[in-house]
Queue: 2 jobs
Job 1
Amino acid sequence: MEQRLSMVTLSVQDVAETRRFFEQGLGWKANNFESDDIVFFQTGGSVLAIYSRQALERDLGQAATQSLGAMTIAWNARTESEVDEVFSQAMRAGAISVSRPARAFWGGYSSHVEIPGGHLLEIAYNPFWSIDDAGNVTIPEGT
Amino acid sequence: MEQRLSMVTLSVQDVAETRRFFEQGLGWKANNFESDDIVFFQTGGSVLAIYSRQALERDLGQAATQSLGAMTIAWNARTESEVDEVFSQAMRAGAISVSRPARAFWGGYSSHVEIPGGHLLEIAYNPFWSIDDAGNVTIPEGT
């Protein structure tokens, strides 16, 4: 089993609301697949999906419980000032501040917001991880 | 804000248990960073983290509710038979079957398992999405 992930799916009550956050708020571009139940964003070599909770429960044949923080997604900035900028952008786009940008105990600079739909997004700068021109993150060996 | 994700974090009660599932069960290789609270797996251009719920709650300053299905991660196979193989491998590694491999309404072949730690992993074949040699998934334009 190759060591990779193909997709992360955020299950939300209102797909259109969360889609607006990413498209209009953050300037991301969704795939032009037309569905009220799901929207896809290409994120490097994997995909972020926003999926209606009702549809997910139909797939699973069981209830999916709401959560905040049981799983989080993170977006790493290239600099600390970019953390501040993207945090502000997320606020303007309708996110709720959970922890404002601040020095983190692990040596980085980090913030958390709750995005529309009720999931946690960390916006952080990690001085120990490299980010290439394409945005790929690499954990250095031996750290 | 570049359109990408840097990290997906699964918050779990027992980091060692979930780490064993990925390392010993699925054959993945963790970064050799030593901590009881967190473990990192390089997954292409992003990172999968397994993080102790207690530590996450300390970071957030608030409780993180348990969930099953509010967010899911997916691993796409290259063939239907590979879905069967990886599903079986996950079962042997201690996952719980939520939906066995079967034809999905969207035209693919899909299964869901609950991994140790209580998160949902979809194991699927999607004939409409391409996977390159490095494992990167691409959504075709216009679909």
Job 2
Amino acid sequence: MRIAVDAMGGDNAPNVVVEGALLACRELGYDIVLVGDNTMIQQELFKKSAKAPHSISVCHATEVIGMDEPAALSVRRKRDASINVGARLLRDGKVDAFVSAGNTGAVVCAVALRLGLLKGVQRPGIGLIYPTLKDLCILIDVGANINPKPEHLLQYAIMGDVMQRYLFDKKTVRIGLLNVGEEEVKGTDFIKETHRLLNSSNIKFIGNVEGGDIYTGEYDVVVCDGFVGNVVLKVSESLAQTLSIFLKRKLKQGFLTQIGALLSMPAFNALKKEIDYSEHGGAPLLGVNGVCIICHGGSSAKAIKNAIREAAEFVRFEVNQHIIDALA
Amino acid sequence: MRIAVDAMGGDNAPNVVVEGALLACRELGYDIVLVGDNTMIQQELFKKSAKAPHSISVCHATEVIGMDEPAALSVRRKRDASINVGARLLRDGKVDAFVSAGNTGAVVCAVALRLGLLKGVQRPGIGLIYPTLKDLCILIDVGANINPKPEHLLQYAIMGDVMQRYLFDKKTVRIGLLNVGEEEVKGTDFIKETHRLLNSSNIKFIGNVEGGDIYTGEYDVVVCDGFVGNVVLKVSESLAQTLSIFLKRKLKQGFLTQIGALLSMPAFNALKKEIDYSEHGGAPLLGVNGVCIICHGGSSAKAIKNAIREAAEFVRFEVNQHIIDALA
């Protein structure tokens, strides 16, 4: 298993990315190709380990696409950016998968451009794996496609179904459509048409899911357009942080509550770990003709390692081949 | 000040609604007209108070629109439903405002139908008032209009601006547009056109707001289409509950963390109160030719009381007249 990792992608690159790659080499035994500025990567490797393992190599890339740069434009102009170089390694079969915590739009653009889509897929989608009160759920799409057609959402549902089946070994995959009400008549024309399509497909479509039900664990896959999905992802992430800030403020206001907070700390930490989706790996870019995992820009080294493991599992369980078969 | 309250609306009606109305009578001194089944309301009044205050009266309504009934259809068919009766009292000038925790769609429909819209307003919108890390923010629309045009969002921005100015005494009201990125070029055609409109208006438009920034307090009003707004509202509410369940599970796992939880309880309760948006009243139905406050279905008696106070302030500060002036 040989995996390319965008060493320049993310808020703390190349530092944490290199650390994550080292963890993946040591703990998981994969070959890693770090893509990015050779000098910077070598420095990081040297800082972290007197002698880097043989299973780590570097593929030099002279440019970097910043987190806030316009995606399509940068992918076209910065031909030697780490994201473009990684996508080419994947296209040329030099690696089995590509992991990046860089500019999401640029990764989607570069990988879709260089590798094209899987047979039968009309648009790629990003699948966010997140914890619910029961099992993991996948929300598709969280931002690759903000103007989808109903057929695209049907394809997302099928891709999510395959992911749950082959990656998480789910026997029955319950699919929901994010909507403003549970009744079939609710929603925009786009949603109603999508509902009709999902209903007449072979997947186990449960029906509409309201925003209040995506965390209950009653669904294994929830599909939505990339605009709504992106808002849900960012609102959820920031609300969790906001509540934690609110709670800290309150806990600081009394002496006993401060003691209580100290005693409760292990529970807070366990919760933090449970809801940290980077623990579950990154978000797969579904529908492209290759395995690509997109990580959060703020990923820790452990999150990078988990995304690398997830990429390897995606390859090993041949998720993409199963998607092609399911769509055929 | 005379306010009609839908005694049959909400998950715990008429029980908590009657209790909330009694609180409003006693603490705020308003005249309240409870709308709904006379016998049931009198029973509740009798249970809670041997002698109901003179300032509480009942307006009998023979029908009830259930929380999950189709809105438009029920409003047309159940002409004597409490929601319809309340809307007619408001139209006929027999009350100054109408408060309901009932079926949101039905309230929007009945009030817009009976009272019409304010001069210059094209579509009503629901404004959710919620706490951020700094001040209160208003998210418009959270579900009245799931297929808006860009002009509708401009009008929501203007109505939100007026609300912040006259209800919360804000001198400078910073307006944001919910989008998938901060850059002007981001988003769907609908969003780009809305951005252009907001930019060329007289309000203080700050720009695009990502989902991750609606809780920071950098904006006083955030506008979005009713589909996205409704999803944000429900996701936020359920995520807060989900996190609390997760945390309870973790706290129960250790002896010391259980002690810690007991000591921290006052902080948890204070947090719960702070983020409970019903503490800040209900969500005004903006743009209709009358004052109507929509409460959460699960509202407590205190939430009903706060919504009644909010309705009275809406009337007293002549928010609707200011909206007409601002739109002219």
